[in-house]
Design a protein that fits this description.
By secondary structure, the protein is mainly α. It has two domains: 33 residues, no CATH class; 87 residues, no CATH class. Helices cover 63% and strands 5% of the residues. The chain has a two-stranded antiparallel sheet with strand order 1-2. A hairpin with a 6-residue loop joins strand 1 and strand 2. The chain binds zinc ion. The site of zinc ion has 8 residues, from loops.
Length: 123
């Protein structure tokens, strides 16, 4: 993170811009990556998610029937457990990926709001 306040030039329209701008006020080109959202709504979302996520994992693991099959001595039952285990891993990856996409979208919507606010001030 650069702390110094310096004047920069937009790489697209070459208008002077302030380094703290996220978007060029002249042409709207993205200059800087927006910082992580620190709004109350985003904070609550992250905190609630942090509380819920381990609970969901815990419930899933305790309710997961596949573990019994996976530990079974019966080869056929063990096979079912192995398949269930692969599905569990895949669904976990998909779940985290969706959570990641959801977070990105939340950040993006905050960014858009920020940009809209900045636009109304600039013009
Ligand atoms: Zn520009």
């Amino acid at each position: 993170m650069e702390q110094e306040i310096k004047n920069e030039i937009c790489s697209f329209c070459h208008q002077p811009i302030l380094s703290q701008y996220y978007f060029c006020p002249n042409c709207g080109t993205k200059i800087n990556s927006a910082p992580l959202s620190t709004t109350i709504g985003t904070q609550i979302g992250i905190y609630v998610f942090s509380i819920i996520l381990p609970l969901i994992c815990f419930i899933f693991i305790t309710r997961w029937q596949g573990l019994k099959y996976f530990k079974s001595n019966d080869p056929k039952a063990k096979r079912i457990g192995e398949v269930a285990f692969i599905i569990l891993i895949l669904s976990t990856i998909i779940f985290f990926w969706m959570a990641f996409v959801w977070t990105q979208q939340a950040v993006q919507s905050t960014l858009n709001t920020l940009n809209a606010d900045m636009g109304s001030i600039s013009f």
